[in-house]
UniProtKB/TrEMBL annotation:
Name of the featured protein: Exodeoxyribonuclease 7 large subunit
Molecular function GO terms recorded: exodeoxyribonuclease VII activity; nucleic acid binding
Span of domain OB-fold nucleic acid binding: 12-117
Enzyme Commission code(s) on record: 3.1.11.6
Catalyzed chemical reaction(s): Exonucleolytic cleavage in either 5'- to 3'- or 3'- to 5'-direction to yield nucleoside 5'-phosphates
EC category: hydrolase
Domain Exonuclease VII large subunit C-terminal: 143-458
The keyword Cytoplasm is assigned to this record: yes
Top-level taxonomic group: Bacteria
Length: 466
């Protein structure tokens, strides 16, 4: 009950919330259908209950928001139905049409209690998302871009996006191992681990595609392989960002996602798509068969043709050898006598020619002997004459040189300092050095004059230039 204070009716918070509860209970007595986006499922594993956050958006902005509750029993029933119809579990970010009752609790506030969810509504929305993705790819002109790439004749180097523990991945590798044992085919595979379904699959697959792109020169093809998970969780392969990454990838992308329902966008735009990883591996093996079988047939044809050509050549060669022997024998027989006659004639001519040449050589030798003797005798006389003349010339030269030396000795004796002084000449010195010019002395200098016998000292009074 409210109380009145200073003319004001005052209610407690509990009274107000209970009044709201009563009003809502009376107004909303039955369940009703609501469409909204499940922003967060908020499923708690321990209790099994879910506390979804429901929103409505307009132009990307939230214009309405409310919390809801989904009890464990209802969640299990609804989730099972979702997986049967949509091949997808309840998850964040999907649009739903649900039946709910409005509850208001004085302590916990307003909530919607979800009783049922219509999966066909969500299925339609997911199909709409798929069509929107296809339309955007077509509008961008890239829907068939990856399909237009040329697949290598022998796609040996394979970048695999999968989960290492996936059954589909194991099946994929087993096919290649079997092909290696049976036909000696060699493949190089490298795994790029990624989630293959669920909310984070798009992000991790794109991340691995970008990793592969950095080392693209090492690979011929990219294989996205998924298996063992049934048809659940495939909506991620309708995502536009993932589809765009695949469509614009620089080498062929092939898929073996492993399901039997309608193809996803990723499969539609991939260069090749197989229903299972095993079928995808068999497709690659078939590429090797397509190349190997014609090559082996061509090899067999080449071998057969080569053998035939060799046999024909051997037969022809044997025939020609036989003919050559016959012709050669006839020619040899015809020319044998002629050769013998030529040999005899040549022998006679050689002996005659050798005899003549021997006589010529003998005569020439005698002439050389006589000429050599005469030349040596003449040279001997000439040498004697030269020796006598040389002796006379040497005596004359020695006499002339001896007379010159005597004259030179006399001149040297006459020009010696003592003989020069003896003839009346003298040497004037200043400080022990001979004076040659008046410019070397000054008045007052003490001079020494050297004579033939003795010396004279004097003092300079004055100088006079010549």
């Amino acid at each position: 009950m409210s109380e009145k204070v200073n003319g004001k009716h005052i209610f407690s918070l509990l009274e107000v919330t209970k009044s709201i509860q009563k009003t809502i209970t009376n107004r909303y007595q039955t369940a009703f259908w609501v469409k909204a986006e499940m922003n967060k499922l908020n499923h708690y594993q321990r209790s099994g209950h879910c506390y979804p956050e429901l929103v409505e958006k307009k132009e990307g902005k939230v214009i309405a928001q409310i919390s809801a509750i989904l009890w464990k029993s209802d969640y299990q029933k609804i989730n099972t139905n979702f997986q049967r119809v949509l091949k997808e579990p309840l998850k964040d970010g999907i649009k739903i049409l649900f039946s709910a009752t409005i509850n208001f609790d004085p302590k916990y506030g307003l909530t919607l209690q979800i009783n049922d969810i219509d999966p066909s509504f969500t299925l339609g929305d997911l199909e709409k998302e798929k069509q929107d993705t296809i339309n955007k790819l077509r509008l961008a002109g890239i829907f068939s871009k990856n399909k237009q790439l040329a697949l290598p004749v022998l796609p040996q180097r394979i970048a695999i996006i999968s989960v290492e523990t996936s059954k589909g991945y194991a099946d994929f590798l087993n096919v290649f191992e079997s092909a290696g044992r049976s036909w000696n085919y060699t493949f190089f595979q490298l795994l790029f681990p990624s989630l293959l379904q669920g909310d984070n699959a798009v992000r991790t697959i794109i991340a691995q595609l970008r990793r592969i792109k950095k080392v693209i020169h090492h690979f011929d093809v990219v294989a996205i392989v998924r298996g063992g998970g049934g048809d659940i969780g495939l909506s991620c392969y309708n995502n536009y960002d993932l589809a765009k990454e695949i469509a614009e990838f620089p080498i062929p992308v092939i898929t073996g996602i492993g399901h039997s329902t309608n193809e996803t966008v990723a499969e539609l735009i991939a260069h090749e798509n197989a229903i299972t990883p095993t079928k995808l591996a068999e497709f690659l093996i078939q590429k090797f068969h397509d190349f190997s079988v014609p090559v082996h047939k061509a090899e067999e044809k080449i071998i057969d043709r080569s053998r035939s050509l060799i046999r024909d050549a051997q037969t022809k060669f044997a025939s020609e050898v036989k003919l050559l022997r016959s012709v050669t024998r006839n020619i040899l027989d015809k020319n044998k006598n002629a050769v013998r006659q030529q040999a005899q004639s040549l022998s006679q001519q050689s002996r005659f020619r050798l005899g003549n040449e021997k006589k010529v050589l003998t005569a020439a030798g005698e002439d050389i002997r006589k000429g050599t003797y005469q030349f040596c005798t003449a040279q001997k006389h000439h040498t004697s004459y030269l020796t006598a003349d040389l002796k006379k010339a040497i005596h004359r030269q020695l006499a002339q040189k001896s007379l010159g030396l005597k004259n030179l000795e006399t001149n040297i004796h006459n020009l010696s300092p003592q003989n020069v002084l003896k003839r009346g000449y003298s040497i004037t010195q200043l400080a022990g050095k001979a004076i040659r010019s008046t410019e070397q002395v000054n008045p007052g200098d003490l001079l020494t004059t050297v004579l033939y016998e003795g010396s004279v000292s004097s003092t300079v009074q004055s100088t006079k230039k010549a």
